[in-house]
């Protein structure tokens, strides 16, 4: 059993103005279909971005740390050209494990009241932890079974996928003040 499934990074929490800026950038991606990935699952809409989408929101030091954390790309069916994306999802997200990423940095942008992540035991018979993260920024473990409670309203996030560093290693670095502090 895993001791932790997620940890909060208050240094990366957005204020309302920053969230509005990033959400407008999402809307531009959506309207123009810039970065749209048609290879994702039907209940997900993914728009790939680059690190520059976070300029004027975070300092160069933070951007460099995010870039280092999210370096490397998988060879998968989603044809990723970047580790960064806007993600829109609506309704229930079934129990699953992320097949290629080890962890994810999640910045919620829309529908803070329906961000209810559920972590399941290995047998997928029981919820062992829940996270209602609202507008807070987290790094989450993704190789364990997890799902999202049903929501009738869309949820929008900016995500940085982490492919080369284990969740436990990242958490340890954060707790020791090596990243984002």
General description of the model:
- It is a single chain.
- The protein is an alpha+beta fold and 181 residues long.
- 20% of the residues lie in helices and 30% in strands.
- The protein is built from three helices and eleven strands.
- It has a seven-stranded antiparallel β-sheet.
- Strand 2 (36-37) and strand 3 form a beta hairpin.
- The longest helix has 17 residues, at 16-32.
- It is globular and about 40 Å long.
- The chain starts with 5 loop residues before the first strand and ends in a 6-residue tail after the last helix.
- The relative contact order is 0.23.
- The mean pLDDT is 86.
Question: Structural class from helices and strands?
Answer: alpha+beta
In oligomeric terms, what are we looking at? single chain
Helix content: 10-25%
Question: Topology as H/E string?
Answer: EHEEHEEEEEEEEH
- Strand count, sense and closure of the main sheet? 7 strands, antiparallel
N→C terminal distance: 29 Å
Order of strands side by side in the largest beta sheet?
1-9-6-11-4-3-2
Count of strand segments: 11
The rounded Rg comes to: 15 Å
Strand content: 25-35%
Q: Spans with pLDDT under 50 lasting ≥5 residues?
A: none
Task: Give me the number of helical elements.
Answer: 3
Shape: globular
Question: Mean of the pLDDT scores?
Answer: 86
